[in-house]
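Researcher: Please translate sequence to C-alpha cells.
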Amino acid sequence: MKTDVVIIGGGIIGTSIARELSRFNINIILIEKEDDVAMGTSKGNSGIIHAGYNDDFSTLKGQLNVKSNPQFDKLCRDLKVPFKRIGSLVVGFTKEDFNKLEDLKGSGEKNGLRNLEVIAGDRLFKLEPNLNPQAKYALYAPAAGIISPYELTIALADNAVINGAKV
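Model: Translation complete:
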C-alpha cells in the first residue's frame, strides 16, 4: 500500500491532523513512539480551551485561538467527548491589575470577541466563591471551556482509524 502522508507523533496535534486528513481519499499513517497515543505532553495538558483574548490576532496562534474556540462544541459532540463552557476569570487585586484586565479585554475585542467583561464585587464572588477574599476584579471570558485532552486525543485517533488511517 502506498502511503500519502506520514504523521509523526500521536499527541493532540498529530491525532487532529490524522483525523482531519482521514476525511479525504488518501492513505495516512500516524507513527507514535509510545505504546499508545496521548502518552506525552497532551495527556498532562490543562485542557483549557482559551477564549482568545491574550494572543495578538496578527499572529497565527492568535487567529487559530479565536477561530478554533467555537469549533469545540461540534467537534466534542461528534466525537462524544465531554466539553464544558465554564468561562474563565483572570483575577486582579490592584488598580494596576484592573488596568491590565482592561487591556486584555481590549485585546480580546480587537480579536473579535464580544462577551468579555471586567467584573467586580458580588458578581466576581458569585462566579467563583472560593476566590481569595482580597480579589477585587476579574476579566470574565464566558467562551472559555475545558476538555479532557487525553480523551480528546484518543477520540481523534479512533475516528481517524475508523476513516481509514493507520496508527
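Researcher: Any highlights?
Model: The CA atoms of residues 125 and 132 lie 9 Å apart.
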